[in-house]
Amino acid sequence: MNQDAWPAAPVPDIVGDVWRWQLPSVHDASRVRMDLRARLAHPSLTSSSTEDAREGLLLAFEELASNALRHGGGAVEAVIVATRDGWLLTLSDEAPDRPPVPAVDRDPALGGMGLPMVAQLSAHYGYAVGQDRKHVWAQLTSGVGVPGATPAPRSTRA
Question: Could you tell me which residues come within 8 angstroms of residue 95 by beta carbon, excluding any fewer than 6 positions away?
């Protein structure tokens, strides 16, 4: 990931089971995370994804939700599209004029490591502006190989 920018890219149009939550406040992020954890514990998901992948989704949710609530503004919505090979996580807020900006050269003790962490956990990521909202998204794999699917190589450039 270019440390100076979170890429502008349209939210992928993916078909799957849609899970949606409203997050009016920071306290709601914990409630939604518990609900998400319960959904991920369902036997249909535990048999088709790894524990590491499910924990990665929870971590990515926590980071993007925290960013949307602290740095975004207005009504925050979380949407996850669950597919057979992973999840598309999208957090939207009412701050379309404020793109996500990863912290650069900051002491990790001061925070700001969320976007780089989400980038490392994700196969693809980006943000888009539409309908007076900013949509920050990350696509994460299930950790289980899908027959016929070939993962795209990750960039090794700094």
Answer: 71, 72, 73, 74, 134
Q: Output DSSP code: residue 147.
A: T
Place of tokens 């943000």: 127
Q: What is the C-alpha to C-alpha distance for residues 2 and 118, in angstroms, rounded to an integer?
A: 13
Residues contacting residue 138 through CB under 8 Å, at least 6 positions apart? 60, 64, 88, 89, 118, 119, 121, 122, 124, 125
Q: What is the residue-wise DSSP string for 116-135?
A: HHHHHH-SEEEEEEETTEEE
Mean pLDDT by groups of 10 residues along the chain of 158 residues? 75 96 90 93 86 95 93 92 95 94 68 84 96 96 69 48
- Which residues 6+ apart lie within 8 Å of 28 measured at CB? 21, 22
CB atoms within 10 A of CB 71: 13
Q: Which of 121, 131, 115, 150 is nearest to 7 (CA)?
A: 115
